[in-house]
Amino acid sequence: MPLIRPAAASLTLALALFALSGCKQEAPKTEAKARASASATPSTFKADVSGGRLILPAVKGNPGAAYFTVRNETTGTMAITAIAVDGAGKAEMHQTMGGEMTPVDRIDIAPGTAVTFEPGKLHVMLFDLAADKLKPAAAATMTLTFANGDKLSAPLEIEAMGAGAAHDMGDMH
Ligand SMILES: [Cu+2]
Fold first, then answer.
1. How many A from CA of 72 to the centre of ligand 1?
2. Cα 93 to ligand 1 centroid, rounded to whole Å
């Protein structure tokens, strides 16, 4: 029995291929930034964020920092893969070691344990801060994105860094 290929099917395939290649060339660079959305947190998600604070830089235009503790209350390992803070153009996870900061892509949290972002160690560095939006004694919303796509929002208490202090993670307190 001869294999019959209807012309319509071939045409559809050709169109699909054309559409794909066209898509590749014209794909816009959509850097969909994770926007804070507390409602995205499903009820089965069990992580707890505590002690959140945002330290403003002493010098306007310099980066700030965020510190907090995340506890994994599930029975599986969870991993933080991205962090966003309202009022900050960019947030990066950094690890300070021997006075040098290295960006960190992912932080794994074993079940039943907590990871703390703290001065001089693991921290979140905040760039392009909106000075009119982030004021001492107010709160900013931070959203953590996990490897499985879950998101979790938590407040950061905003603090001013002591005037004249250098931007030294190890000295903040
Ligand atoms: Cu840093």
1. 24
2. 7
Q: Which domains does the chain have, with CATH numbers?
A: 38-163 (2.60.40.1890)
Nearest to 146 by CA among 34, 62, 15, 43: 34
**Pick the residue with more confidence: 170 or 76?**
76
140 vs 44, which has greater pLDDT? 140
Looking at residue 23, its pLDDT comes to 39
Here the tokens at position 65 are 């920092």
Token couple for 114: 């907590």
Nearest to 34 by CA among 173, 142, 155, 162: 142
Q: Is the pTM of this model over 0.85?
A: no
The CA 75 to ligand 1 mean position distance, Å, reads 30
Q: How far apart are the first and last CA of the chain?
A: 81
Cα-to-chain-centroid distance, residue 131: 20
Cα–ligand 1 centroid distance for 112 (angstroms): 27
